[in-house]
Amino acid sequence: MPLTDAQNRALVKKAIAYAEEQATTDSDFVKILRATYLTQLPRERGLPVLRGSEPGVRRVRSAAADPSLHIYDDPRFLENAKLLAQRVKQNLRIMGGTKVAAKDFPDCVAVGNATQWGCTGTLIAPNVVLSAGHCASVATRVYFGSDVTKKGAIIGVKKAIRHPKYHKGKKNDLLLLLLEKDATVKPRKVAPSSAINAATDGRAVGFGNVDGTGSFGYGTKRQVDVPIASPGCTGKVNGQNDSMAYGCDRLLEMVAGKPLLGKDSCSGDSGGPFFVTDGKKGWLLAGATSRSTDSSVSTCGDGGIYVRVDQYLDWIEKTAQVKLG
Fold it and tell me: Considering the domain boundaries, does residue 227 fall inside one?
């Protein structure tokens, strides 16, 4: 049986408390946090503990991934993960992932075609949704609501416009959806560059799959807070530029990840919002979910790359003929 959101939050806080008690470094903290959570989770669900999930045992990585490039070895990520955990203890963050209440993030929409829903997007103007470029083939309508199996407002897409320099989901991975009519939901404001550059964590929201392989669970709007490793793909980790370490596009993308397995953006969250807050104006749109990092072992849960919306404002405003304030 899956845990309820309340049970999962309690489990996360228990793992945080144990990690704080045992760890002496940021790296130890995240390793113990992950291992403790993965040990407790099956026990809470009445399942046997999997081999290799005990505290202190590192998960085996695939031969294709270079351990020196992994997000869990990035000191910036480790520091921000610990800061996020401290805010979780104060009930200021939601590490562990939860369903989104109907009143929250109504601007986050499901994106699909006549037969299926498969991506996520954000309403940025009354008749404009921003999603991922690689979602173009399934983007003919959008859904406003919390669960695609339940009643909600559906608006058709009049025109879908992919970024002219889009390349195989790894460059300029943005898609503008011009809707057939205005939505009644208030559009989300875009975060200024200063807020994105200063953020240590953000909130990913989407309708995507919930398992580490990215194969099932699509349809319910969920949220998860994640530490940021690189807000602009401009730093270095273990002597390598972020662009080489993670496969991100310098200045145009950001890298963030989750210290708990499977608690990350995932397949179906593509195009969905990554929010940051400046502490004054609430959650502001910073990024659009694109893909996993090059060093990821699992499809989901090992870190993700998000396209920075602030770097594409000129294209968005000119193409959609809107002014984003």
Answer: yes
Helix (H) or strand (E) holding 115: none
Task: Give the phi and the psi of residue 14 in degrees, each rounded to 5.
Answer: -65, -40
Write out pLDDT tens, residues 226-252.
Answer: 999 999 999 998 888 999 999 999 999
Strands 253-256, 240-241: pairing kind: unpaired
Q: Examine the domain organization and report whether 52 and 86 are in the same domain.
A: yes
* Cα 86-90-300 angle, rounded to 5 deg: 55
Domain count, the chain: 3
Give the three-state DSSP class for 153.
strand
Residues 202 and 257 in one domain: yes
Domain boundary among 35, 70, 96: 96
Choosing from 61, 96, 131, the residue where a domain stops is 96
Classify burial at 313, counting beta carbons within 10 Å of its beta carbon; exposed 0-12, middle 13-18, buried 19 or more: middle
Are 160 and 242 found together in one domain?
Answer: no
Distances from the Cα of 28 to the Cα of 20, 74, 81, 246, angstroms = 9, 12, 12, 22
Distance CA 125, CA 134 (A): 21
The pLDDT assigned to 295 comes to 67
Q: Give me the DSSP letters along 71-83.
A: GGG-HHHHHHHHH
Q: What is the pTM of this model?
A: 0.84
Pairwise CA distance, residues 251 & 267, whole Å = 24
Q: Are both 170 and 200 inside the same structural domain?
A: no
